[in-house]
Amino acid sequence: MNSSVSVRDEVYSAIVVEYKGATGADPSGAPGENAKDVEKYIKEKITGAYSDGAASLAQAALLTPEQAALVEKARWSKMAAQTSQSAAFMRSLANRMSDAIAQSGGASTAQESMIINNIRRADVLLAEANGYISDALDSGASAKAIRAVSQNLGAAAALYGLAMGGINDGLQGVGEGGANIIGGWAAGAVAEFYIAPLITSYMVGMGVSATAAGIASGAAVIAAGFVGGLIGQALYESGVTETIGLNKLIQVAMDNGLGAFIQGLGEFGGWLGIELYDLLHPSENGVANNVNENFRNAANFVPRRDPLTLDLDGDGIETVSASNGVLFDHDGDGVKSGSGWVAADDGLLVMDRNGNGTIDGGGELFGADTILADGRKAGSGFEALRDLDENGDGIFSKTDAHFNDVRIWRDLNQDGISQAGELFRLSELGIASITLKPTTTADLDLGNGNVVDNRGTYTRLDGTTGLAGDLQLAVNNFFRDFSGSLDPVMVTDEVAQLPNLKGSGAVRDLEEAASLSQDLLADVQALTPGTSREAMRAALDTMLADWAGTSTMKSSEDILETSSSTKRTVYYHGAVPASVTAQGAAAVEAWDKQQHAQLASIIAILEKFNGSSLISYQNDQVSTGGNTYSWKNVTRADGSVEQVMNVVLQPEQISALLSAYANLKESVYAGLVTQTRLHDYVDSLAMRVADGKLQFDISGLAAMLESKAQSNLGEGLQDALDLYKYAGSFLAEAGWDGPALLNDWIESASTTSAGIEAIAFAGIKTVSGSFTGMSADDLVWGESVNDIIHGGGGNDLIGGGAGSDTLYGDAGNDRLFGGSGDDSLFGGDGSDILFGGAGNDTLSGGTGTDRLEGGAGDDVLSVSGDAQNSVLAGGTGNDTLSGSYNSDTYLFNQGDGRDTVVETSYNSGAVDKVVFGEGILASTVQVFREGLDVVLSIGDGADSVRLKNWLTSGGAENGSVSIEQFVFADGTIWTPATLKTKGLTTLGTSGDDKLTGWNGNDILFGGAGNDTLSGGTGTDRLEGGAGDDVLSVSGDAQNSVLAGGTGNDTLSGSYNSDTYLFNQGDGRDTVLETSTYSGAKDRIVFDKDLAVDDTFFSRSGDDLSIAIRGSDDQLTVSGWFASSSSQVEYLQFKDKTVASSEVAALIAAMATTSSSSAPLVSSNSQEAKLLVASSIV
């Protein structure tokens, strides 16, 4: 994509300098070299908080209340820190860009203003998110907090993506990557691998039926994985952006007043598709946001509201997008709609006219919905306030009767609902008066689709002035709430038994709409269990038309054709082909009618589901796509005159409309399929208790599928495919292996003509040899030979079948299944799911957010360095898993064998995890070191995870390959700090080993042979074992333990406190002690059966010798009498502990009584030996 709008070099440089300042990078160098770094830095900061917060909420659901509280608080705290860091970066970035513009001279361009405003909005959103996080820390994660944080983080990610998308070619990758898309897929991955199974168990534990629980978790995956992942992609995949480029689209949109539509395109990922609260209510899943995105790509009208607002903090009036989650009833009909809104640091002028204590409608703001004393509606906010100027002096002040009735509403939590603590008297905020005549009527674009229409001033009590603005707040009717409607709908008992879906725009939820329409009710009732895929999809066109038909909103076609007493006809169509034009007027009119027949019903449905019109209609003219159309008089053959308007839609608009309608159908099908035609399959799931644990029993589902396949293999394949697509993740957690079942059925069926017909009926194309798909969503399965299959464009499902196959997903979000054989799977672009199946497979996920599952065999799994939030599961066998430069999750279950993780997280902010499955507890894991690798050995060692090159050659933790979290089944989480505290265990061999510790805690076992053990820093434990060993720790080590074992060993301690162990039979050991630090307390611990009288103390030169009577064992402390730093403070025996100050006296006493003492084995008592204690102290 080529940029058509450049940004001055100073602004570009400001971005790079700010990024480098935040990350500590060298600020020198060419800006273009760091564009990708800028992209990754921000996306990681936002999406890391996004997915981490979501995972914490899901995990907390299954823990005990005490565990849940601790886990949840820790996760929310981490999320708050990440969010604050991102907010500070964006705030500083926007300020630096503004300064760069000021220093370079001249006012900012519309493009630059948009970029800066979007970044400032993202900063505000992140700050607001932290407000909700604080609430969650104080009182727990309420549904409101979950929803609000998701909304704010999603919108912030999208705003940054849009801002960066507007900068020149060097940063274009940020726009194409789309922080909103990354955020959507991050939440999708969390839902698929955390939320689905946890929701199921949580709901069952609360007494919810297994059927409902299954639907809930399946819907969680659909809503966050399928819907959330697609949100925002239309911005980049639609024909509009492919043809003219993102920047030109934004510029043209702003020139035509379309800023709200375009800037809002990416913001929905945080509002609906990734709303965790709704994941627990699957019956309310509704219209996917990409329906709105594609429709808004085709539309060009931005409805606005205009409340009077005060700039309270002096930095200009700040607003948020209409797609940011605030719903407000501007027109007083009880229905709240998505509204642009004033940020928390500024305030709306309001008056509680109905005296109910809240501001609950546009009539209580000061704007176009205010009813004046003469019964008219105000034309502006200033006119609305002027109605209260009783003395007519043009100033609203305390001399006017209603001055104390007017309030300033600071919506501190940005929920669109006034609370008592958010309403302030004017005097409380130091406001003395408001001038009622604007000083300028020039529009000022605030970004996010919001505009200041008129600007004036207010005066503070101290005489200073501030800005009063008459806002034009954008409205997005796609988001709405009918709960307060003045025309409520009672859901009938008959409808209450049926599935429900959320509506959108001007369309009520399905249960309310079906209560209004017998036709719609019949449509839903017809979707019974067992309905075929074709029948259900075919029924959706009628159902959508009937559902939209319950809306009171008129379509643009209805409005246009009823706008005059003269008969009027409108035709929506594309550009007339030259071949049709050549055939004459009659052919052109026939072509127009044919196109209109195809498009008009789609447009009408989409307009109602979006709550806004495709066109702008003013002064009897229609504007859309940058063009204006008027009525033309046409005289018919009978002499009658008719007015006709041909609205020519651009190819990009038609493409966006068709995509929006297809997405609408798909989202409705996805929301209903498990509740209708596949209901009996899901209902067949049973719960049972095994080994004291609640588990799913899928035998009923498997039997139903087998029965369907026996009676009608084609329909059985369709059902299995839909179960896999729409509930596959949940069913996989329950134990159903969908890909393997499909592979077995297809392989078996492909051997008979009837089976081949069934496969074709199910929409599966079987191939033998080589095949390349097109841009559509391909469903392809290989036969028994070694196939090479390319999916091409589209979201493909490809199975290799038998043989050693090579599968390429190419573009799109693909699912590849290798089947039996040694297969090679390449996901390519997009977010892919790869299953290796049996055999030694090679899986390469490519870019995107991928899930790779090796299956049985020794597999090699990898993703691109630029991949984001991927999941890798090796399965059984000894597998190698290689992650990206960003955050990755590695899954490991009991029986998975010995896997190796190769991590390369070069990007700051990456959070990599190893997640252990059921039955693997922290208490069962031992941590070993082998060379530069760290090995987590589980149980008896049959299972292990090797962390490749965890250590540097210098013995430090290798940060670029580190795993940030190790998550266990009981909720325990280890970090690298945990490993440092626990210590790494290194085992020697039977030979002469040289073992060196790292910068953390070590446990070194020399084993047999003459070994050299160097503990390094930390708190170490060194055990020499058999042989003449040399043991030492760094001078800075702390509280280490050294045990020489059998043989003649040398033990060297640190400058701090050390403990030396010596047992009977340990031989002749030497201790070299150098405690130079004050406060160091060294200790020699003798065999637990040795008393002081069992030993003989003597001096040999400067050394202290302690011989064990009746043996050759002897311990020598070198330099004891030469320096106090070489002394050991305490000598611990069975019967007493001897202090270093007592040693001289003890030597003298033993010397005088030696003749009567028990003889030593050696004639030279000072050659007696002492062995280091074998027990662990």
From TrEMBL:
Organism, scientific name: Xanthomonas graminis pv. arrhenatheri LMG 727
- Report keywords, A-Z: Calcium, Membrane, Repeat, Secreted, Toxin, Virulence
Short name of any one Pfam family annotated for the protein: HemolysinCabind
UniProt main location, coarse: membrane
Name of the featured protein? Hemolysin-type calcium-binding protein
Q: Which residues form the Haemolysin-type calcium binding-related domain?
A: 933-978, 1103-1135
Q: Which residues cross the membrane?
A: none
Superkingdom classification of source:
Bacteria
Enumerate the subcellular locations listed in this protein's record, separating them with semicolons: Membrane; Secreted
GO CC term, one of those recorded: membrane
GO MF assignments: calcium ion binding; toxin activity
Q: Does the keyword Repeat apply?
A: yes
Q: Which InterPro entries match?
A: Haemolys_ca-bd (IPR010566), Hemolysin-typ_Ca-bd_CS (IPR018511), Hemolysn_Ca-bd (IPR001343), RTX_toxin/Mannuronan_C5-epim (IPR050557), RTX_toxin_determinant-A (IPR003995), Serralysin-like_metalloprot_C (IPR011049), TSP_type-3_rpt (IPR028974)
Q: Mind telling me which PROSITE patterns this protein's record contains?
A: HEMOLYSIN_CALCIUM (PS00330)
